[in-house]
């Protein structure tokens, strides 16, 4: 299909709370964009779910806005999707469960029981996904043990993108990238893992068909939607790297919005001896390794809304925090208010202020929170930097609007930080996958780099000691959570 000319490369990013559709031209310029949101429910403690039909309706609405009939024949659509979700489907295609999200922690006890065993370690090194309640593996095991009737009736175990694909084409298909985030996929053999299937007591036929991230499906059997070509795409984490341009040796992607992640691209799959990082597939000989944190900007929002209740705006407090000494006068914060994924993989971890004294102010607490978030991200990043020398960090996400945040990253990591000016990195990454599927050279597009932040070498030793204290504190408290 290399000779087909498209004017509109549409990236559909199916996120946790919003589906975004962005139409780009061949140079990455945004032609139009649209977002449609949906809610999340918590029917029990530690449960996080969504109605898959609401997400499908948001997708359909976004696609109609971005691909009107007048441009349909000039458009190609590619998908990015949030990872680690699970829906149990019956033989008629009806969901037996809601979408169980990555943030769902109902399988905590099961994951804790398994992760330190020889079986748990072997599964990690076969799949590249730590044993943790966020993984599809743990979720299916929870259904088997706690909802045996649903488990026995399940025809297919799928995620949200596979649900949309089924609604479009009437078939259950998953790309290697999303499969690699499930904890069910053997990344070395590039197929569903036999040991995992045996452990879960399910058949390979109960999982979607595996295809490349550049798999193209022509048109759709759903007559309500535009007749366009679809590329299946990949997971949002790997596509954020691709969209931000952090794909070469020496480059690291740093993203912080509600949550956060540190990732880099490697040519060989990698699993960590201590099971601290993930391994995602993107393309042949291109893997994304890294770690994601539950606790990003949402922690600062929690501080503002639930703790401070201050007449000062958070922006004012951040301005005051910027003028304080490194370490907030011996106030240290462990940011695990939502439990944690990387690097500790402890769903029961909790937030801690350590060292509070009568001299501390709201601004001290704000700085301690900001430092704690970046120190935690550094705990992930330093694991990756053991595998590859990093020269520059590509920063994206809501935090990248703050010079103070970005300078903290530069100083704690002691690396040059570059703002990535790519709009909607995961959506643009999906568009780049479409270009690659069409064998277009434009898939090697270089992102536009924005403002640069250089590390202050004079503070390196102070942050090094602060990070060592941060990790010691968690290590002393981890058995108390």
Automatic annotation (TrEMBL):
Alphabetical list of Gene3D superfamilies matching this protein: 3.30.420.40
EC category name: transferase
Keyword Transferase carried by entry: yes
Keywords: Kinase, Transferase
Enzyme Commission number: 2.7.1.12
Molecular-function annotations in GO: gluconokinase activity
Taxonomic source organism: Emticicia soli
Domain Carbohydrate kinase FGGY N-terminal: 8-243
InterPro entries on file: ATPase_NBD, Carb_kinase_FGGY, Carb_kinase_FGGY_CS, FGGY_C, FGGY_Carb_Kinase, FGGY_N
CDD domains registered for this protein in UniProt: ASKHA_NBD_FGGY_GntK
Domain Carbohydrate kinase FGGY C-terminal: 253-437
One Pfam family of this chain: FGGY_C
Family to which the UniProt record says this protein belongs: Belongs to the FGGY kinase family.
Name of protein: Gluconokinase
């Amino acid at each position: 299909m290399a000779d087909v000319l498209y004017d509109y490369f549409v990236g559909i990013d199916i996120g946790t709370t919003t589906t975004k559709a962005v139409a780009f031209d061949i140079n990455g310029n945004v032609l139009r964009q649209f977002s449609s949101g949906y809610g999340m429910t918590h029917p029990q403690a530690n449960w996080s779910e969504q109605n898959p039909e609401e997400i499908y309706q948001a997708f359909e609405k976004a696609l109609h806005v971005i691909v009107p009939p007048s441009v349909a024949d000039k458009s190609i659509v590619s998908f990015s999707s949030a990872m680690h979700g699970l829906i149990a489907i019956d033989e008629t295609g009806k969901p037996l469960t809601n979408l169980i999200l990555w943030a769902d922690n109902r399988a905590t006890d099961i994951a804790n029981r398994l992760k330190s065993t020889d079986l748990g370690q072997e599964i990690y090194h076969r799949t590249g996904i730590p044993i943790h309640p966020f993984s599809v593996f743990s979720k299916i095991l929870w259904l088997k043990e706690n909802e045996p009737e649903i488990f026995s009736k399940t025809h297919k175990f799928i995620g949200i993108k596979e649900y949309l694909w089924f609604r479009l084409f009437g078939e259950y298909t998953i790309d290697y990238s999303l499969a690699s985030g499930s904890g069910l996929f053997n990344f070395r053999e590039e197929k569903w893992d036999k040991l995992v299937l045996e452990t879960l007591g399910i058949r390979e036929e109960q999982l979607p068909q595996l295809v490349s991230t550049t798999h193209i499906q022509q048109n759709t059997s759903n007559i309500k939607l535009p007749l366009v070509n679809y590329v299946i795409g990949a997971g949002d984490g790997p596509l954020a790297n691709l969209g931000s341009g952090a794909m070469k040796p020496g480059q690291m992607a740093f993203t912080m919005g509600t949550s956060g992640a540190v990732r880099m691209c490697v040519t060989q799959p990698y699993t960590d001896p201590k099971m601290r990082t993930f391994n995602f597939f993107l393309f042949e000989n291109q893997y994304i390794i890294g770690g994601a944190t539950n606790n990003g900007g949402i922690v600062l929002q929690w501080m503002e809304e639930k703790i401070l209740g201050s007449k000062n705006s958070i922006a004012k407090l951040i301005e005051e925090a910027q003028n304080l000494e490194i370490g907030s006068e011996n106030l240290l914060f462990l940011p695990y208010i939502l439990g944690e994924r990387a690097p500790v993989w402890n769903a029961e971890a909790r937030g801690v202020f350590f060292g509070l004294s009568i001299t501390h102010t709201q601004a001290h607490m704000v700085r301690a929170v900001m430092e704690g978030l970046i120190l935690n991200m550094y705990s992930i990043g330093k694991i990756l930097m053991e595998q590859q020398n990093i020269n520059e960090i590509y920063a994206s996400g809501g935090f990248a609007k703050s010079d103070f945040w970005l300078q903290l990253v530069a100083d704690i990591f002691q690396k040059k930080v570059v703002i990535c000016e790519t709009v909607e990195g995961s959506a643009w990454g999906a568009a780049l996958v479409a270009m690659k599927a069409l064998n277009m050279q434009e898939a090697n597009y270089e992102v536009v780099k924005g403002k640069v932040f250089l590390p202050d070498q004079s503070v390196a030793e102070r942050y090094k000691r602060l990070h060592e204290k941060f990790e010691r504190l968690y290590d002393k408290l981890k058995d108390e959570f």
